Amino acid sequence: MPETPPVEDLGDGVWSLPVPIPGNPLGFTYVYVLTGSDGPVLIDTGWDHDDSWDALVKGLARIGHTVGEVRGAVLTHFHPDHTGLTGRLRESSDAWLAMHPADITVTERMLALDGDARLRSLADQMRAAGFPEDDVDELLAGPRYSPPPVVPDLPLADGARVDLPGRDLRAVWTPGHTPGHLCLHLADGGLLFTGDHVLPRITPHVGRFPLTTGEGDPLGDFLASQRAVGGLPGADTLVCLPSHERRFTGLGARTAEIVEHHEDRVAEILALLRAAGPATLWEAAAGLTWRRPWADMSVRSRHMAAAETAAHLRLAEERGLAALTGTPALPRWVAVTGPDAPA
């Protein structure tokens, strides 16, 4: 578990305020604080836990502010390590909460379902993916995924300027990790807050939910977003401030590495399908190379791996390299053969 670093002054009115994620191997989320003439604005809020809230309150005090002075919070995406404290922030201040409209829609849908309905949907997805019933039972008995506590009140579209007087902070829509993921470009400071879209060491998770049905191509969106961000004017002179790990430069090279990783993964999946024939999502995911052997992975990790595999299969479908067969109750994928198929 990485140690939570101290609050850091990054200069020019920008602060790094790490908020711990108790019990999670990520360790912490960087909440960034940008000071303006009418109060500070946060980028993300952190995990919903007493220790996390305490870190946020004390970190703001270290900078010279109270929670009640916070003008607003821009949320890079709806995941709980980024939005968990929005409820407490709203109770303790008049801060607005901004998020891309696509992730606001996801948040609304999640909050409209009770916990039991979400669990039933998850069980149906896993069975259609070919998960053994023991795995379904184990995952359903484990910790539940927490939706954001509240729905943000301020939609922030691609290119929109954040309400931060005296600064030029603009939204850069980067779908893939979530449908409405945002990076934030501080044009007057040469900074890019990359959220979970571009991390310096690990590749962000891109999954498809539901696992076997639904529309969309999240990995295709993600790769397009990687190329777009890597091609921003002056990309390699930007200082990138991610939500995890460490700040970095060389944005163009890093986005190219991430794209290459996923292209290699698509090729590995297609090779597996050509060798094994029709495969359920479980069979496809279990046959791939992971950091840890499939049999040694927790059920939750296998579920995440299956979701990532589903995203790669969907991209292969979109490219005409794989096709969906089987039945709605148990779909299977096959590699498409023909003159344009890879050897």
From TrEMBL:
<dbReference type="InterPro" id="IPR036866">
    <property type="entry name" value="RibonucZ/Hydroxyglut_hydro"/>
</dbReference>
<dbReference type="InterPro" id="IPR001279">
    <property type="entry name" value="Metallo-B-lactamas"/>
</dbReference>
<dbReference type="InterPro" id="IPR050662">
    <property type="entry name" value="Sec-metab_biosynth-thioest"/>
</dbReference>
<protein>
    <submittedName>
        <fullName>MBL fold metallo-hydrolase</fullName>
    </submittedName>
</protein>
<feature type="domain" description="Metallo-beta-lactamase">
    <location>
        <begin position="28"/>
        <end position="244"/>
    </location>
</feature>
<dbReference type="Pfam" id="PF00753">
    <property type="entry name" value="Lactamase_B"/>
</dbReference>
